[in-house]
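User: My collaborator sent over this chain with a note saying "see what the structure looks like." That's all I know about it. Can you take a look?
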Amino acid sequence: MVGKELEQYTLTSSDGNTITVTETTNGDYYYRDDNGTGYSDNGDGTWTDENGNMYTE
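Assistant: Without extra context I'll predict from the sequence alone. Here is the result:
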C-alpha cells in the first residue's frame, strides 16, 4: 500500500522571510515547519502560525 504524499507549502512572512510547511497526519495543527511550529491555513491565501504570526502563500 502506498501512503499519501504529504503536501508542502512555501509561506512568506510579513518581513519577507520564507518558510516551508509540511502536512502532518496527527496533532492539532495539520502543517508544521522544520522547527515543529504549527500553522493553520485560513483558506484565503493567508496562514497563521501557533504564535499568531501571519503569512501569505
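A starting point for your reply to your collaborator: Residues 18 and 50 are 16 Å apart (CA to CA).
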